[in-house]
Specification:
By secondary structure, this protein is an alpha/beta fold. It is built from 9 helices and 8 strands. The protein has a single domain, classed as Rossmann fold (3-Layer(aba) Sandwich), CATH 3.40.50. It has an 8-stranded mixed sheet, with helices on both faces.
């Protein structure tokens, strides 16, 4: 426990909480701006195992915010490069890399062996797939989204609570050109996602269950909105889950 002594010193976690963390597996879908930070803090915190799903390669413009990567890794697989770096951070954690695109065809096989699924993606279509497989497998989805100076965080499908479809029943139109991203925004949202993950694992009641936290770094404002679980949206998710390959 020496590695985690500053964490176990917290009354809200303690050695029992650390054991729960050590026995939990997490699948991270996307190892970009959000995922590159999420993965580091989860591995540092002593998670049992983490799966990294990303079919993308590292580019120069990624380095402005995806702080897990280095210039020497440009052109290499994000998932494989992340695994290599994270193994140096904590050799006690099992790290699996999946350098594939997360799709309807492989979502079930990727998610079924992990306890918690974290959304580190940057598109709506993938989030709906994550949501639907989480509803079908009854697994929590730790949601995060970023754009310009603005971010959102929530915990979906926890204790049969609100799902991503309850927040966005209709898919938004994907933009043809990427939006700007303030360099520190992904780190802040990612840290909040890890915080919610660890709180959920250790049994903290104050997780963002049926709540949406928003933050605007330009105006220095944060808000928390109540989310209403909608049975009709859960049913849609279950029907879509049945169609997964």
């Amino acid at each position: 426990m020496e590695r985690y002594i500053r964490q176990t010193a917290l009354t809200e976690i303690g050695e029992e909480g650390q054991k729960k963390i050590r026995n939990t597996s997490v699948l991270l879908v996307g190892v970009g701006g959000l995922g590159s930070v999420i993965s580091q803090y989860l591995v540092a915190s002593g998670i049992k195992s983490i799966g990294l799903v990303d079919n993308d390669t590292i580019t120069l413009h990624n380095l402005q915010r995806q702080i897990l990567y280095r210039e020497s890794q440009i052109g290499l697989s994000k998932a494989l490069s992340a695994k290599q770096s994270l193994e140096k951070l904590n050799s006690e954690v099992e790290i699996k890399a999946y350098p594939v695109l997360f799709t309807e065809n492989n979502a079930l096989s990727l998610c079924e062996n992990y306890d918690i699924i974290i959304d580190g993606t940057d598109n709506y279509s993938t989030r709906y797939i994550i949501n639907d497989v989480c509803v079908g497998l009854n697994k929590p989805m730790i949601y995060g989204a970023i754009s310009e100076f603005y971010g959102q965080v929530s915990v979906f499908n926890y204790q049969n609570g609100a799902t991503y479809r309850c927040l966005y029943p209709q898919a938004k139109e994907e933009k043809n050109t990427p939006t700007g991203i303030f360099s520190v925004l992904p780190g802040i949202i990612a840290c909040l996602q890890v915080s919610e993950t660890l709180k959920l694992i250790t049994g903290n009641k104050d997780v963002l269950h049926n709540k949406l936290l928003t933050i605007d770094l330009l105006k220095n404002t944060t808000s928390i909105f109540e989310l209403t679980p909608r049975n009709e949206q859960r049913q849609i998710a279950l029907e879509r889950f049945k169609e997964l390959g």
